[in-house]
């Protein structure tokens, strides 16, 4: 199609029409799907595959990697449910999540809000908060072992202030071993989580806080009534991440500090999976607990997502 234009005092000039656009706007290119195939294969093999394997092995009687395998059906489930150690691990895991997660999220949010206000030296504070995340797990365990051993820093400090009667073998006492593990979880996670919250709070417009303070709101009310609702969905995401890390990652702390003892007073579900698989060589029992752990994580994620979803 051509168009005619007539300049003043001149003849009409023909202009060729622009070439017609080929294809529909917004149609995704087929090459994008092809490029995603390697990632999809990787995800299916190394993510979906192990999940399926957990359910398969949970239905087997497998007393070791080199031992013959037989079908157990629901026998492993009955064995697990009849084992008092499993119920101790369930209770310990529930206590660990119920104590560590709220303390970690609330304190990290408050600390992140403080850093987001950019006090003097706030850049240095961010680096200091990140230090626990840079320390390896064995190093963190050694720090806590040095502090909580019978001749460690904690008992030495109590004796120096005249409270020697309160000294204890913290990691070897059934009443305090789990509490020490919870303290390690909180200490190792609170700084990293605070940095995440500070980074998200930096993107909140300053006008919101300034308007609230002009209306007479203090920092406490501004923190919880103004900023928290704005980043509520992000708090939910961080809470889910810390929930998964505490639920599935506690085995390494238990392994390095208490070995699940004394007795089963500090045994968690994730450590029980490791213990039954690599120490007791009962893979069927181990993966049955793994299935329960998987279902608990799924239910927990859905509950957290529902609790922190935006109300608007």
UniProtKB/TrEMBL annotation:
Cited SUPFAM superfamilies: MetI-like
Annotated signal sequence range: none
Subcellular location(s) of the protein: Cell membrane
UniProt-listed GO biological process terms: transmembrane transport
Keyword terms: Cell membrane, Membrane, Sugar transport, Transmembrane, Transmembrane helix, Transport
Renumbered residue ranges of the record's region Disordered: 1-25
Family per similarity comment: Belongs to the binding-protein-dependent transport system permease family.
Membrane topology summary: Multi-pass membrane protein
UniProt keyword annotation of Transmembrane helix present: yes
Superkingdom, natural source: Bacteria
Domain called ABC transmembrane type-1: residue spans: 90-304
GO cellular component: plasma membrane
Main location: membrane
Organism: Streptomyces iranensis
InterPro entries listed in its UniProt record: MetI-like (IPR000515), MetI-like_sf (IPR035906), UgpAE/MalFG_permease (IPR050809)
Protein name, as recorded: ABC-type transporter, integral membrane subunit
